[in-house]
Write a structure and sequence with these properties.
Length: about 130
């Protein structure tokens, strides 16, 4: 999996800050400290997308990617079922990753910014 230097630094920081937690991957778990970069990239990006860190995240984030989990029946890479403190509602978050072996297929910062702005606008108009 291709990771640029900035993302590698973020993953290393994420690993150090959360090394005492575990991530669920299929039927088993892996410690954050010992997890490979693909698992940590998924966990890091999901925690940033949901704007959630330790409180409940690691208990509810589950990787279902068939290469990592060994499960073939699910067509998504990860999910989290998180309860919000303000409303006591549970929200299902679904994640699908596009991981590439080199930088030829990577998203440009402009494309990423445009996508984030679009999603933010759609979310605000709910």
């Amino acid at each position: 999996m291709y990771l640029n230097d900035d993302i590698k630094r973020e993953i290393d920081y994420f690993r150090r800050m959360n090394e005492h937690f575990t991530v669920k991957a299929g039927e088993g778990t892996v410690s954050v400290k010992d997890a490979d970069d693909k698992v940590l990239y998924m966990a890091l990006s999901a925690s940033l997308a949901m704007d959630i860190s330790e409180d409940g995240f690691f208990e509810e984030f589950i990787i279902t990617d068939k290469v990592i989990s060994g499960k073939q029946e699910l067509q998504l890479d990860a999910y989290a079922f998180i309860e919000t403190e303000s409303t006591n509602e549970k929200n299902l978050h679904l994640f699908q990753y596009k991981l590439h072996e080199n930088d030829k297929n990577s998203v440009s910062p402009v494309e990423l910014m445009n996508f984030s702005t679009l999603i933010d606008l759609l979310h605000q108009n709910k």
